[in-house]
Amino acid sequence: MSPITNVIIDTLVTKFHVSAEAVKAESTFDSLDLDSLVLVELGVILGNRFGLEIDHGELIVAGTIGGAAALIEARQRC
Fold first, then answer.
1. Which of 12, 13, 23, 1 is nearest to 73 (CA)?
2. How far apart are CA 39 and CA 2, in angstroms?
3. For residues 22, 73, 14 and 59, what is the CA-based torsion angle, rounded to 10 degrees?
4. Is residue 78 predicted with pLDDT exceeding 80?
5. Angle at 56 between CA 62 and CA 26, to 5 degrees
6. CA nearest 67: which of 38, 34, 24, 35?
7. What is residue 64's predicted lDDT score, i.e. its pLDDT?
8. Mind listing the pLDDT tens digit for each residue in 33-66?
9. Which residues have C-beta within 8 Å of that of residue 58, sequence separation ≥ 6?
10. 1: pLDDT confidence band, cut at 50, 70 and 90?
11. So what's the pLDDT on residue 25?
12. Taking the model in full, what pTM does it have?
């Protein structure tokens, strides 16, 4: 698992109280019952953490924790 994936998982568990057992790289945001407001806040938190601007719509399109990690990794390379 990538370090970015681990940061996302840790954030979901500690900040949003998502069950650690339920969270995997392939977990979808829908399966974790994360609504758009949570995704907005998650985008802000991750954006601040990685020095990027992440719109919640991008997280919705990414769809999964692994997808969100891939998005962040790709944006860091630019």
1. 1
2. 20
3. -70
4. no
5. 30
6. 24
7. 97
8. 999 999 999 999 999 999 999 999 999 999 999 9
9. 43, 71
10. confident
11. 97
12. 0.93
Give Rg (Cα) of the chain. 11
Domain ranges of the chain: 3-77
What class has domain 3-77? mainly alpha
Tokens of 69: 């990690």
Q: Cα(55)–Cα(77) distance, rounded to whole angstroms? A: 18
Round to whole Å and give the CA distance between 6 and 25.
9
Pick from 36, 37, 49, 40: which is nearest to 8 by CA? Answer: 49
Check if the beta carbon of residue 23 is closer than 8 Å to that of residue 12. yes
Residue 16 has pLDDT above 80, yes or no: yes
For residue 39, the Cα-to-chain-centroid distance in whole angstroms is 8
